[in-house]
Write a structure and sequence with these properties.
The structure holds two protein chains of two kinds. Chain A has 19 helices and four strands. Chain A is mostly helical. Chain A folds into three domains: 6-178, no CATH class; 186-266 and 418-488, no CATH class; 270-413, no CATH class. Chain A is globular, with a radius of gyration of 24 Å. Chain A starts with 5 loop residues before the first helix and ends in a 13-residue tail after the last helix. By secondary structure, chain B is α/β, with parallel strands linked by helices. The N and C termini of chain B lie far apart (86 Å). The chains are: A mainly alpha, B alpha/beta. Chains A and B meet through helix 9, helix 18 and helix 19 of A and helix 1 and helix 9 of B.
């Protein structure tokens, strides 16, 4: 039951109605049952894996509370290892044992039963593991108390709007919401519905539309010239953004219908002025997770071990940064997928950030030499374009099936041929969809509070906005499109 | 309490207004799209529409883009003294789409001959082929004969059809272009046949092995229905495997298709690897499509076969 299926709407609407009729004290049970049903609509048997993770972490977290500090660190290390081992097992099983076939069945509550003859990653396992790790770490840091209520704890991990692709919710933000009343709120309902509508627009009109061209070119990259590959890479940059942020909008909107607030994962990432800024705006719940639980602890650890001022002529603080950032982005790459392409993708971002950090003084000197103000419009536009190009190069590794293919694509892009593969109508749709996405982001970034449509004070303007979005989806949306890209992680 | 009740009433009232506005927009824009769709004068939409609603040709060619670019109606007309219309279309699957075209054509009149361009591997199951029925969505409401087929696309197809815009989903540019006069010159056709010019091929043909992706029993049932209908309606149905720049490796679909043809005593002409083609890549536009020169020779050969069965 993907978010972009009618089955999901059929599931969601009655659930919201029942939710507000239900006694508020027991609403969590309804949400938990709905979340389990949602999970069962994919590969039912894999819920046992998630159930095991929930139980183990619940028992551990509650026993951790009673443990002395020196033993609690060892216990934390053990639970972290267990969770990562489960994730690694499912992520790498098919790579390590390619000949073992496991017969699973994919279930759609409303349609056919399809066999899946391999061990697949249980739905949302990466997100569940990262969520539960943050929970365990925060307990060990004593910033939160373990959840005593098994139902609440299960719902924290299984809450269906966020289970498949996050956001990776921090316990401090989400768990207190489980004890709240969530009375019927006009603002939450309307805001939730608007976000769902915007999410569908991004997914069906932008992402799936661009995917047609991207797949056609990338799936046969050896037959396409540099210009077609450049265009496909540009489209892919917007496809993955619209796909993932569209999913997040639907997730946040769905949660709002039940009175819950989820973390926004995106803040106009392609308007970032540096790669660091990009990661402050892209997949925010994940990037902040990496920052708080990998980068900072590693940097702290290294800084305390490396006592000299310089190593091989390099300042210790810069070296610490490089080592910590490379490790963080290597993990970021591995988390995204199995294969060297994902590792290269992560490491490339690590290199970007390391270079950016170690050349700060040089950048400052150049700006001073040429009298360029950091906040001048020209410099900001230049920075946005440069950042976008760097990110686009990284996306080639993300989309390609092998490092060799990615390198070939980059080689072709830098020696363009003018043969472009396109159907005029598909290109027309692509320009229209990217244009609308850019317009939306520019408006939010630079004209916040102005040109309001869905949040206008006038009802008729809001109504026109809703109708326009709905008609665009019906007229331009791709209804035969596939699943969300981040689903596989 | 009163305030909360007012908020609820307020929300319900607003929701009703939104639903009403959506309903009106859907009906209005849907009606406009429908009118523009059926007024097209060029492009694929027009060709599909013409095949389904207007042609009364003696010979109908059904198939995919391989049919569209390979069968020249003029040659069949000159050789057999029968009118011919090429109903092959780009981007359509072979059996599902053409079954629907077949149903809608014979609902209106009975052609004398139907040439169905097919490859045995078309019997394989592919979910994409169900998606590729989309160009027939504008015919869903007016033609109940194809609803069962169209409903195979998804369990929610009936529900989607509540919208009057949905049948024209993704067609806006095609409809606009189809209504523009200059598009006729840009995309000329000759009774449905659209020629390809030039060749992208060189060298020798490869042997291609079709992977086994299961058999679509539903497609087989549709083919069987077509064969039975043609037999009972006295329509001559001929399956043709038109030339392709590949040698087809042995696969189970060949056996399956041959058995199907034999069971129903249907006519099948396998012209996929005729030596005249395999020795001359210049007759092909690409590996699967003939160019104008190749299509002329192929249509002449086929017309000759039809004259002297």
């Amino acid at each position: 039951m993907l978010f972009n299926s009618i089955a999901y709407i059929v599931f969601l609407i009655p659930l919201v109605l029942v939710y507000y009729i239900f006694p508020s004290k027991w609403r969590w049970t309804l949400l938990l049952v709905a979340s389990v049903l949602y999970y069962l609509s994919f590969i039912p048997v894999l819920i046992t894996v998630v159930a095991a993770i929930i139980l183990i972490n619940y028992i551990f977290s509650n026993s951790l509370r009673l443990t002395k500090t020196d033993r609690s660190n060892r216990r934390l290390a053990l639970i972290v290892l267990i969770n990562i081992a489960v994730l690694a097992f499912f992520k790498y099983f098919n790579q390590i044992f390619p000949d073992i076939r496991i017969h699973l069945y994919n279930v759609d509550l409303f349609y056919k039963v399809n066999p899946v003859n391999m061990l697949v990653l249980p739905l949302g396992l990466s997100y569940i593991v990262f969520t539960v790790l943050s929970y365990q770490i925060e307990i060990s840091r004593k910033t939160i108390e373990p959840v005593r209520h098994l139902g609440h704890f299960s719902l924290y991990l299984l809450f269906f709007p966020k289970i498949a692709q996050g956001p990776i919710e921090r316990p401090q933000k989400f768990i207190p919401q489980l004890s709240q009343n969530h009375p019927f709120s006009y603002d939450y309902i309307t805001e939730g519905l608007k976000m769902i509508l915007i999410g569908y627009f991004k997914k069906l009109v932008v992402a799936d539309r661009l995917a047609i061209y991207v797949s056609a070119v990338y799936n046969n990259s050896e037959h396409h010239g540099g210009t077609a590959l450049l265009l496909a890479t540009l489209f892919f940059a917007f496809q993955i953004y619209a796909d993932f942020s569209g999913y997040t909008d639907i997730a946040i909107g769905s949660a709002k219908l039940f009175g819950f607030d989820l973390t926004n994962n995106f803040r106009r990432p392609y308007l970032a002025v540096s790669v660091k800024d990009f990661w402050d705006r892209w997949h925010i719940s994940f990037s902040t997770w990496l920052r708080d639980y990998i980068f900072l602890p590693v940097a702290y650890f290294l800084a305390h071990r490396m006592t000299n001022k310089t190593y091989l002529g390099i300042a210790a603080d810069k070296l610490v940064y490089v080592m910590a950032i490379m490790l963080t982005f290597a993990i970021c790459g591995i988390w995204h997928g199995v294969g060297w392409t994902f590792l290269c993708w992560g490491l490339l971002f690590g290199v970007y950030l390391a270079l950016s950090n170690s050349t700060k003084d040089m950048q400052k000197a150049i700006r001073k030499r040429f009298h360029i103000k950091k906040n001048s419009a020209v410099y900001i536009i230049f920075s946005i374009v440069l950042t976008f190009i760097l990110v686009m190069i990284a996306w080639i590794f993300f989309r390609a099936t092998s490092v060799q293919e990615a390198l070939n694509i980059i080689g072709k892009i830098f020696s363009p041929s003018w043969e472009i593969f396109f159907k005029p109508s598909e290109l027309g749709f692509a320009v229209l969809s990217i244009g609308s996405l850019i317009a939306m982001d520019l408006k939010h970034e630079f004209f916040s509070g102005q040109f309001l449509v869905l949040h206008s004070k006038r009802f008729m303007v809001r109504l026109a906005g809703v109708v326009l979005l709905a008609v665009s989806i019906l007229l331009l949306g791709v209804f035969d499109g596939g699943q969300f890209i981040y689903f596989q992680f | 309490m009163e305030a909360i009740r007012n908020r609820h009433i307020h929300l319900i009232a607003r929701m009703l207004i939104v639903v009403m506005a959506l309903f009106i927009a859907d009906r209005g824009i849907g009606a406009l799209m429908k009118s523009l769709y059926f007024r097209q004068q060029s492009g694929d939409g027009y060709l599909i529409n013409y095949a389904i609603d207007s042609t009364e040709a003696d010979i109908i060619v059904l198939g995919s883009s391989r049919a569209k670019h390979s069968y020249i109606p003029e040659i069949f007309h000159d050789s057999l003294q029968m009118t011919c219309y090429n109903g092959g279309r780009d981007g359509t699957n072979h059996i599902l789409f053409n079954y629907a075209q077949f149903k809608l054509i014979i609902k209106r009149y009975k052609p004398e001959v139907i040439i169905f361009d097919i490859r045995p591997e078309d019997l394989a199951y592919s979910v994409d082929e169900y998606d590729m029925l989309a160009p027939l969505l504008p015919f869903y409401k007016a033609h109940p004969e194809i609803r069962d087929l169209m409903n195979q696309r998804s369990p929610f197809e009936k529900m989607k059809q509540i919208s009057h815009i949905y049948p024209f989903n993704s067609m806006i540019f095609q409809i606009i272009m189809g209504n523009l006069e200059f598009n006729k010159k840009r995309k000329p056709h000759y009774n449905g046949y659209v020629p390809f010019h030039g060749s992208k091929l060189s060298g020798t043909a490869d042997t291609v092995y079709v992977s086994d992706s299961g058999t679509d029993e539903y497609k087989i049932s549709l083919l069987e229905e077509m064969m039975e209908t043609c037999m009972s309606s006295n329509i001559k149905l001929i399956f043709v495997y038109s030339p392709t720049w590949n040698y087809s490796g042995q696969n189970r679909y060949d056996t399956l298709f041959t058995r199907l043809i034999e069971t129903h005593s249907a006519d099948y002409k396998n012209m996929s690897n005729l030596p005249v083609y395999m020795e001359n890549p210049g007759y092909f536009y690409d590996r699967t499509h003939l160019n104008e020169e190749g299509a002329t020779i192929f249509s002449t050969l086929l017309a000759r076969e039809l004259m002297n069965p």
